[in-house]
Amino acid sequence: MGDQIEIITAPLVNVRVTSSLNSFMAEKRFDRGLTVGDLKGRLELITGASAGTMTLEVLDENDKPVCSLGDDSALLGSYSVEENYRIHVTDTSKKAMDFDDLSKVEKFKLSEDEYSKRTDTVKAYLMKNKLGKYNEVEQKRMDEERDAAEKAEEEKASTLNIGNRCEVKVQGEPTRRGEIMYIGKVHFKPGIWLGIKYDEPLGKNDGSVGGQRYFEVPMKYGGFVRPGNCEVGDFPEIGLEDDEM
Fold it and tell me: Using an 8 Å Cβ cutoff, are 228 and 191 in contact?
């Protein structure tokens, strides 16, 4: 009795799934005991194609056509579907869509007047519940706090002079020392600001912002801070006070 060779096929097969409806690809594992009809039902959930109108084509690892799965009652294992082959789903009832190209998606446009008339918007919800800027009492309180804070900054600035030695403390940044070079309003932020010439290159500019100059110092030696972040006094350069001890 001669030797017998038994070919054992794995019960599960890993395949790549693509569809004519979009450019996505999924890697899935299927039981070879599935009928083609059952396979279509699962592919419907994966691709969005309709099981009743889809056709299935099998391609090898090099994307060369192998066969078509045309018999819904046949088992998947009866076809030449091997590891890492690709099953391409074509749905003849639907037009392919390219979800990667958003320029082809029709945009919903609404005028400001139409938006204001709707009752299902965030704006309508805020107005109805008097939240955010539509809460007149809260908005008034916030405006008063902002005005009071700005007045405090202006009062602090009125006590300072150009040439004052100072120490600057801004949350999240190292303490810096320097000299006040500018006091007043700036074009890039509201309110009163101080222009500082730092003792060390720990600043952000050279005394100018956006092409407009307020004072002149070497690059990285200049910066702008609010008066509340600045204290004036006898602040020698850091390091010099240690040398005097």
Answer: no
Q: What is the pLDDT of residues 177-216, one digit of tens each?
A: 999 999 999 999 999 999 999 999 999 999 999 999 999 9
Please report, in angstroms and rounded to a whole number, the separation of the first and last CA atoms in the chain: 106
**What's the CA gap between 237 and 200, in Å, rounded?**
9
Looking at residue 94, what is its pLDDT?
61
Sequence-separated (6 or more) residues with CB below 8 Å from residue 73: 35, 36, 37
Domains of the chain with CATH codes: 12-91 (3.10.20.90), 111-152 (no CATH), 159-236 (2.30.30.190)
Q: In which band, very low, low, confident or very high, does the pLDDT at 245 lie, cut at 50, 70 and 90?
A: very low
Q: Distance between CA atoms of 223 and 125, rounded to whole angstroms?
A: 42
Q: Give the CA distances from residue 171 to residues 188, 221, 225, 229, in Å, rounded to whole numbers and listed in that order.
A: 21, 19, 12, 9
pLDDT band at 46 (very low <50, low <70, confident <90, very high): confident
